[in-house]
Design goal:
By secondary structure, the protein is α+β, with helices and mostly antiparallel strands. Helices cover about 35% and strands about 20% of the residues. The strands form four sheets. It has a seven-stranded antiparallel beta sheet with strand order 15-12-14-13-17-18-16, with helices on both faces. A five-stranded antiparallel beta sheet has the order 5-6-10-8-9. It has a four-stranded mixed beta sheet with strand order 1-2-4-3, sandwiched between helices. The longest helix is centred in the C-terminal third of the chain and has 21 residues. The protein is globular. The relative contact order is 0.12. Belongs to the FAD-binding oxidoreductase/transferase type 4 family. Its EC number is 1.1.99.39.
Length: about 475
């Protein structure tokens, strides 16, 4: 743990009361949504300005003290976990929207701005921030950028990376850099902005972000379709994509629906139960577009790809249909799931899921498996639920035993071991399944340039 004299020095760098060392704060701010590593930070510090962040980083360099960034702490890779006495830098008080440009359709945010806060601000300006996921009400923009967050609209709008016009960062050396300066076109050498997107705070801290906005979608409409098997979902995707531009295409298994319906607060989409469900969304801008969607649904039924389905007729029904997918992660959280966040190219998804499912069911015949994900962009979430009679440590150890086979399959399909949750600590030992040794060596060399003393979120992405 850090000596009291150093903590006293840290306290002089921020406003009074903005350094916490009480057990409750250490527990709260030292973790994220993962349960693999117990939090053990030395202190939590809350900067309010860029200058304070810069002073904290320089202090940490002077004393070789590790720093861990903390945003909404909704991550699923332990990238925001302080497990080894680090000082947590929490951005809760850097939470202001600083500027808006209606002509360029950009907004300047501090890193602690909540995703939903930005979405609501955009809506108030008649615009739209399209990166969306279940944790939008608590995740922060800095964390979204640090993990290149994806979510439910990637098929139409892409990842967070697509919406970052410019960044202001404090590097691991304590320098302040302004990256790209919000330009659409800028062919002046390396775009360092993209190094910080997805870097999980290992190169430096994001202290301001200029985010692009989009026009608001019109009359969003969702359909939930029940399919007889997983292989039927991809023909459904192709059928709808051939007729219209989708804003989302998700899937979930019947086991997941069981868990949701057991809550008692979400209605079933229709009476029929099927092994898998697809949820798609589109803009019903005209009556013709809605009729086209229904005609495509009927075609899918005729082909045997769909057994039953429903289309939203109101905002309330749209929200309820989306809850079937968005509430899944929260619903299964009490079951202590072992999560894998995998991706392959869309065309390989059916064969890939079948191979992974065979590995899991063969090795864990008594474990309950919940599948869901962003199938329209090739991202599958595999969730293995902990049986009541197993301890957390025993359960995680059993699941880890099979990771080698799961990730060897990912490698064989040229896929990713982490589609959108990042690497953090939970995936760092498996990085070689998605990145070559040469790539990892270059990544380490880049980190050494920005963070020569190794103080920025050490132990994340790689050892």
């Amino acid at each position: 743990m850090i000596q009291q004299t150093l903590l006293d020095e840290l306290m002089t760098l921020v406003e009074p009361g903005k350094v916490l060392t009480d057990p409750a704060s250490l527990e709260t701010y030292g973790r994220d949504w993962t349960k693999h590593y117990p939090p053990a930070p030395s202190a939590i510090v809350f900067p309010k300005t860029v200058e304070q962040v810069q002073a904290i980083v320089r202090w940490a360099n002077a004393h070789t003290i590790a720093l861990v960034p903390s945003g909404g702490r909704t991550g699923l890779s332990a990238a925001a976990v302080a497990a080894n006495g680090e000082v947590v830098v929490a951005f809760d008080y850097m939470n202001q929207i600083l500027d808006f440009n209606g002509t360029d359709r950009t907004v300047v945010c501090q890193p602690g701005v909540i995703t939903e806060q930005l979405q609501n601000f955009a809506e108030g300006k008649g615009l739209y921030y399209p990166v969306d996921f279940a944790s939008a009400g608590s995740s922060q923009i800095g964390g979204n950028i640090g993990t290149n967050a994806g979510g439910i609209k990637v098929i139409r709008y892409g990842m967070t990376r697509n919406w970052v016009a410019g960044l202001k960062v404090v590097t691991g050396k304590g320098d302040v850099l302004e990256l790209n300066k919000d330009l659409l076109k800028n062919a002046t050498g390396y775009d360092l902005r993209h190094l910080f997107i997805g870097a999980e705070g290992t190169l430096g801290f994001i202290v301001e972000a200029t985010m692009r906005l989009e026009r608001q979608p019109n009359n969003l409409t969702a359909m939930v379709l029940g399919t007889p098997d997983f292989n039927s979902i991809m023909p459904v995707l192709h059928a709808f994509q051939n007729k219209m531009d989708l804003t989302a295409f998700e899937f979930f298994s019947d086991q997941g629906l069981d868990k949701l319906l057991a809550r008692g607060d979400i209605p079933a989409p229709f009476e029929t139960r099927t092994p898998f469900y697809a949820l798609l969304e589109f803009e019903a801008t005209t009556e013709t577009r809605a009729e086209q969607a229904l005609a495509t649904f009927e075609h899918c039924v005729e082909q045997g790809w769909v057994i039953d389905g429903v289309m939203s007729q109101s905002e309330t029904q749209l929200r309820n249909l989306w809850r079937l997918r968005e509430d899944l992660s929260e619903t299964i959280a009490p079951f202590t799931p072992y999560k894998n966040d995998l991706s392959v190219t869309v065309s390989k998804v059916p064969a890939f899921l079948a191979d992974i499912d065979a590995i899991v069911t063969t090795n864990y015949p008594d474990f309950e498996v919940i599948w869901y994900g962003h199938i329209g962009d090739g991202n599958l979430h595999l969730n293995i639920l902990k049986p009541e009679n197993l301890s957390k440590d025993t359960f995680f150890a059993k699941c880890a035993n099979v990771n080698k086979w799961v990730f060897e399959t990912v490698e064989r399909y040229n896929g990713s071991i982490s589609a959108e949750h990042g690497v953090g600590m939970t995936k760092r030992d498996y990085l070689t399944y998605s990145r070559s040794e040469a790539e990892i060596a270059y990544m380490k060399a880049i980190k050494a340039v920005f963070d020569p003393n190794g103080i920025m979120n050490p132990g994340k992405i790689f050892h």
